[in-house]
Amino acid sequence: MDYKRVLTTIYNNVVSEENKGAIATYIPELAKVDSDNFGVCLLNMNNEQFGVGNWKTKFSIQSISKVLSLSLAYQIFGDEIWKRVDVEPSGTPFNSLVQLESDFGIPRNPFMNSGAMVICDMLVSHYENPKEDFLAAVRELCKSSDISYSEAVAKSEASVGYRNKALCNFIKSFGNIKNEPEEVLDFYFHMCSIEMSCQELSQVFMYLANPNFTTSTGDNVLNLSKTKRVNAIMQTCGFYDESGEFSFRVGLPGKSGVGGGIVAVYPGKYCIAAWSPKLNEKGNSYRGMKFLEAFTTETEESIF
Asked: What is the pLDDT of residues 117-156, one digit of tens each?
């Protein structure tokens, strides 16, 4: 497969069409990003990397980081995590409080804001220095020390994160948050503020595509069984209440973030990352979704 040709052709087609959607202005710092940014990068099993557009420009990965926190918690706690967070698609917006009442504080899945907060709470309990230790683990995955939080984005999210604060306190009232909500929220806001490029995202997520992946220290991240389960949750829950649409149109496990990033994996073949800040009405990158649908259609490479 001539990935470079396919990436370039589809990129040019998407760029030539209207860039619909809107930037996530409800986080003030994200509103400052140039909406015309658009990049894509693919890394395959032969360690061949192909990029186009703004593929080396860093951006706030936001909820894409929830896959990393889930994977690290899964590595540490094993199946114990499923006692505190479910694995079902929600069918509701990512910041919904509705189901927590009926589900007694158990979030539907770890990619909703509420579910990610429970995972963060577990990591806060485990790590001696949660923010520093989590960032070190992510750097090992990427095999790069050039990964950092954006303090400006974290501060910006905290300044307007009223619903997230309500979610965390509401879960705390059910006893499913063990630490102080302020500490969990500080970790959560920083986790979402991590900045990476499409190039770096395609590298860091190869542990879900390559069964022989090892970190910079030579360690495995997840065994095959756990990798399969994380990919399954990405397939069914990675795009909030548009997860079914992404599965239908693209056919790959993936995860989006309101910073405009999307990462998707084809187990045993490649990892691909796309970034375009304008979001559709469901909170997913308009151009990113369009590009990935065209990519798996053109290559005829999807898991379905």
From this structure: 999 999 999 999 999 999 999 999 888 899 999 999 999 9
Cβ contact 259:23 at 8 Å: no
Q: Is 300 helix (H, G, I), strand (E, B) or coil?
A: coil
What does the alpha-carbon distance between residue 24 and residue 62 come to, in Å, rounded to a whole number? 11
What the block records as the tokens of 55 is 């593929």
- Pairing state between β 59-60 and 49-53: unpaired
Instruction: Find out whether 18 and 286 touch, Cβ atoms under 8 Å.
Output: no
Phi, psi of 161 (to 5 degrees): -85, 45
Q: How far is CA 94 from its chain centroid?
A: 13
Tokens matching residue 172: 């705390």
The residue behind tokens 């706030």 is 60
- What pTM was computed for the model? 0.96
Residues 226, 110: Cα–Cα separation, whole Å = 14
